[in-house]
Structure formats: structure tokens, C-alpha cells
Amino acid sequence: MSRSVVSHARLLHVVQILIACDGAFSESAVLNRLQQCGFLPCLYSCFDQVTHHAKYTTMNLPQTSTPVTYAYVTDRARAVGFYTETLGFTVRNSGEHGDTIDMGRSLLHLTPMADHKPGPHPVVGWEVPDVVAVVEALKARGVAMTVYEGMGQDALGVWSSPDGATKLTWFPDPDGNVLMLSQH
Q: DSSP letters of the chain?
């Protein structure tokens, strides 16, 4: 038998053992061992011919999966009112562990947490065709944009990139969670 046939057969045996071990070895440990045994060149040469085991491929969520974002709130009724009455979304469901807001192509789960302290970064954002129009509509509903010192935002609280192609703005929900609008 030629060396490449032996190597391919040995490599197949190693792969079968790794699959049988159900991921008990780290990726780096496996690669180090394959390198030590001289299998990597063989592996690389036949890589395009190898059918990947589904368990060891990268995560591939279908396009039909619905993204869910989570935000903590201290007052469920106040938060639900803001997201439905002020922002115009609907409640998909409510339960013991919170309320799920239907935002169209994604969901926002509002999780009650009595001692929640909001972080400085956005928990959710929306890409909109006209940031200024949305800001004006939100201001008419009593929402104030957050102006960050040194950001160079305009009178509406909108930051624009030097070429004007990107516009960003931020505003808080009633619990201080940062929300964001962007236009590209």
C-alpha cells in the first residue's frame, strides 16, 4: 500500500474515534495530535473530499429563525407600555418570567429584575430609512434622545459620519436600557 492510502485509512480511523468520543477533546488538542502523527498534510490534501459530520460544523441557523433580544426591566407594566404604546410594537406573550414583545422580524423579551442597573451599551437597535423622521416622531411621543458629551451630535441628538452616509442616535427605555437607531 502506498503511504497516502495508509495515511488516508489511518486518518479515517482517527476521525471515527474522535466522533465516537463525542467532542471530549479540545480542537487544539486534536490538531496538535494530528500534527504530531503527521496527519495534517493528509487531512489538508483530502479536505475537499471529506464530508463533514453535522455535529462538528459551524452553527448554521436557518433564515427562518427569529432573533430574540433580552432586556431587564424593573417595572413590567411600565416597560410593556413603553414598547407597545410609545414605540408601537405588540405583546406576543406574557408569562411568569417576563413579556415578549413582537418587533416584526425579531422579538424582545423583557425580563423582570428588581435591582436591574442598565449598562452603557445598546440592548437593541433598529436600522431605519430616515433617522431624523423617526427621532421627530419619538420626540412627539415624549422620548428624548441621549446626547453624549464629545460625540458631536446635532440638535436632535443625531450623530452623522463625516460623509453623512451614516446617522446614529440613542435613547433610553424607562429602565435606562440604551436603545439605538441607525441609518446607513
A: --HHHHHHHHHHHHHHHHHHTTT-S-HHHHHHHHHHTT-HHHHHHHGGGPPPPGGGSPP---TTPPPEEEEEES-HHHHHHIIIIIT--EEEEEETTEEEEE-SSSEEEEEE-TT----SSEEEEEE-S-HHHHHHHHHHTTPPPB--TTS---TTS-EE-TTSS-EEEEEE-TT--EEEEEE-
